[in-house]
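tokens incoming
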């Protein structure tokens, strides 16, 4: 029976009086756009759920200006790699300000605008309602390969004539991409005791499987994965884990020789600090320290091409990719009669900025992948053990902010 995915609560932050003091400014030959409440030095503006886009537009030379419009756009694009195929679906397209010379007086010295990012959007084709997806990009498997991208931008569209040539109209635009991140946190603070089934007060934290022997059921091994923080973890904090094998002593013998060393805690040393080259260090450590437990976090991206785009693919309408975003490190082990336990942490890559999500035609899900690798499987003839546990990665730890309201992510 498969384990159901956990539920994640979403923080809707209360706007703090301590706003970011900086501004993001972008110029073109026709217009200047300023976005407030941005950190100094940030290359791309960033907003989170409940965020407000405050901006100012200035046109230094309004002479000849015919029309101007400010639009917030959000799109999901599917691009064919090394090809010309592409398709785009609108997520957001909200006009914030429009000006037309045929209907209004001279263009003002400056224009201010304010826009509250919505928490949901409605898919135009189906009428379905989804949470606003975060900025995201992934490469999908297949021939030809495709890249899926969720992106957002503030765009200023301009139309003007040249000097006194009223018939000559030139259109241009200034596009400022911004990153959207939905901040989330676990709904309850951990750690939690071992619990094989969820109930009202405790989440599920223990997962069990059987590693079967080809010789006899006597040599079967019970595999238990214990996640003290449950299936909802912060991507900013190490994820603790315990893996226990329980069974006959003869069946456990192939797993008994591994002992964590300092290499489990520290990165490989530089070539200048050792007698051997870096590739030699890697090979030596792989031989000496190869652990019997391989645990990692994978991110699976699945796209329904027909639902998400206008591509006419007759054969394959589902495309996906799986990427490792976190790897486990064994820090200690303990041995008792009839059992072995390894403990450690999984560290998520700092490049991961968002949680999993679902929108029309796309689903991004995370899961822990566990593999048990005996050092000498032939001794007991064990069947390979590879199992997965769905998890939800929150962007923040539970105590990230006291000024936040948690709401269900089901809506």
């Amino acid at each position: 029976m498969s384990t159901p995915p956990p539920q994640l609560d979403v923080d809707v932050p209360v706007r703090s009086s301590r706003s970011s003091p900086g501004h993001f400014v972008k110029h073109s030959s026709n217009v200047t756009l300023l976005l407030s409440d941005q950190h100094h030095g940030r290359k791309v503006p960033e907003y989170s759920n409940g965020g407000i886009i405050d901006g100012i537009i200035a046109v230094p030379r309004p002479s000849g200006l015919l029309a101007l419009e400010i639009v917030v756009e959000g799109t999901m694009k599917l691009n064919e790699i090394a090809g010309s195929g592409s398709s785009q679906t609108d997520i957001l397209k909200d006009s914030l300000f429009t000006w037309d010379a045929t209907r209004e007086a001279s263009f003002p010295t400056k224009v201010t605008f304010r826009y509250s990012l919505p928490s949901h959007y409605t898919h135009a084709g189906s009428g379905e309602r989804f949470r606003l997806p975060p900025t995201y990009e992934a490469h999908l498997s297949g021939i030809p390969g495709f890249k899926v991208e969720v992106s957002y931008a503030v765009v200023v569209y301009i139309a003007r004539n040249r000097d006194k040539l009223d018939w000559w109209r030139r259109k241009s635009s200034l596009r400022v991409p911004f990153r959207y991140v939905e901040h989330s946190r676990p709904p309850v603070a951990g750690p939690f005791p071992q619990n094989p089934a969820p109930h009202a007060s405790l989440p599920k934290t223990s997962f069990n499987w059987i590693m079967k022997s080809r010789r006899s059921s006597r040599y079967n091994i019970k595999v238990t994965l214990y996640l003290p923080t449950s299936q909802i973890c912060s991507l900013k904090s190490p994820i603790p884990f315990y893996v226990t094998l329980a069974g006959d002593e003869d069946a456990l013998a192939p797993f008994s020789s591994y002992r964590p060393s300092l290499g489990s805690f520290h990165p490989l040393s530089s070539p200048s600090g050792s007698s051997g080259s870096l590739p030699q260090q890697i090979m030596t450590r792989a031989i000496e320290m190869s652990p019997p437990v391989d645990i990692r976090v994978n991110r699976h991206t699945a796209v329904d091409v027909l639902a998400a785009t206008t591509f006419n693919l007759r054969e394959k309408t589902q495309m996906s990719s799986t990427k490792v975003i976190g790897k486990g490190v064994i820090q200690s082990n303990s041995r008792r009669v009839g059992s072995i336990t390894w403990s450690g942490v999984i560290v998520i890559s700092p490049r991961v900025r968002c949680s999993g999500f679902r929108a029309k035609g796309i689903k991004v899900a995370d899961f822990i992948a566990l593999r048990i690798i005996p050092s000498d499987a032939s001794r007991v003839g064990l069947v390979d053990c590879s199992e997965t546990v769905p998890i939800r990665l929150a962007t923040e730890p539970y105590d990230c902010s006291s000024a936040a309201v948690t709401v269900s992510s089901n809506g």
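note: The longest helix spans residues 278-289.
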